[in-house]
Amino acid sequence: MYPTPLPQFAPSDAEACPIRAVGPEGLEGLTGAEAAWAKATAFKAGAGEVCLVPGAEGLGAVLLGLGSTATRDRRRLVTGDLPGRLPEGIYALAGDWSAREAEEAALGWLFGSYRFTRYVEGPAVAARLVCPEGVDAARLEAIAAGEFLTRDLINTPTSDMGPEALEDAFFALAAEHGAQASAVRGDDLLVQNFPMIHAVGRASAEAPRLLELRWGEAGPALTLVGKGVCFDTGGLDLKPASSMGLMKKDMGGAATVMGLARMIMALGLKLRLRVLVPAVENSVSSNSFRPQDILTSRKGLTVEINNTDAEGRLVLADALTLAGEKSPDMIVSFATLTGAARVAVGDDLAPFFTGNEALATALGEAGAEVADPVWRLPFHAPYEPRIEPGIADLDNAPKGGLAGSITAALFLRRFVPEGADYTHFDIYGWQPSAAPGRPKGGVGMGARALLAALPKVLK
């Protein structure tokens, strides 16, 4: 089945089996059948441990282990692996959950119900959760739907998610929410002055394109830009096979902004939203762009190509220039841009760069609140000379290999107007191994943190 069905809570008046979260320190507080069954099954309340307590007629309760207080913060979205582990039925949180814990647990449950079944049938998730009292069910369902879109797009291989298919998904998203969508394709990119998008994508069998979505008529203007490199061979600077294996996810920035846009539109936020996605495939052919080529960008800045595998920043540059021409209140880009970001913070954190101090604070707080962790890296101005090769205005791949994520972010910042409110996320977009609420595969990073932070800074 594809796309993945939208996540939904069970009816609030449904009879439900209770889920009780308990740590090792709480085992002595269990009574009756729960205490007896925990003892009989040697349930120790370790992190993620589950104990099914029988009742008079079927399942009576579920005990969910939280682990020790010393290690509890290592495990987020604690209910996120329950949907696939519990038998068919309807469940509800029971016991002492704070409002924040209940909301996170409910969202984790929805996230954990995701299954990518486009190419192989899998067992359906038949366990459903009643949304906890006081938690906005519609909001969480909208957020989960946006996350599911991001995951579906990333998980789909390039054979079915090239630039054309990404455009189809983009237009379908716009139609779903009454937004306006348009595209500039192929040689029209040259006519309308997007030369670097054209240069990167022209060697592919599918024409490069720039996708645009507009939604909302009131409120601050927010422009989201997502890197849509549907596959990256590295171009003439060809990647080794070991580095090419996950390159279907190189459009993870586009998938993330599309998922975030879906959240924003479904929630009806008072924003004037614009989404820009340069959709290309970086392929090898007789007309591939070459090392040592010098490209002239939409902004007029020249770029020396010192590595054709540093192509994401090129397509983003033209899109960011377009974004800045309308002087929005805020520009945010998402891209699976550099391996250096992974070396710096690993695969779980979404590093971001911003000159907006209020947004930086809000993102850090929001990331912790909504279990979408982010980490700020600097636009470090003393590194600016590293992206200036002398023979052109900019170098797309500075030598030396140091501070690669920072120099990439500085490169992108050159293409927004001076003083613009610009934030860049250098994400991974992939969950290497399953975790609660995050099955192995494509995953949104930073989008929910930004969604939660926006009301605090964009008014």
Automatic annotation (TrEMBL):
Classification via Gene3D superfamilies: Leucine Aminopeptidase, subunit E, domain 1, Zn peptidases
GO CC field: cytoplasm
The keyword Hydrolase is annotated on this UniProt entry: yes
MF GO annotations: manganese ion binding; metalloaminopeptidase activity
RNA-binding as UniProt keyword: no
Keywords: Aminopeptidase, Hydrolase, Manganese, Protease
Domain Cytosol aminopeptidase: residue ranges: 307-314
Biological process annotations from GO: proteolysis
Family, as annotated: Belongs to the peptidase M17 family.
Protein's name in the database: Leucyl aminopeptidase
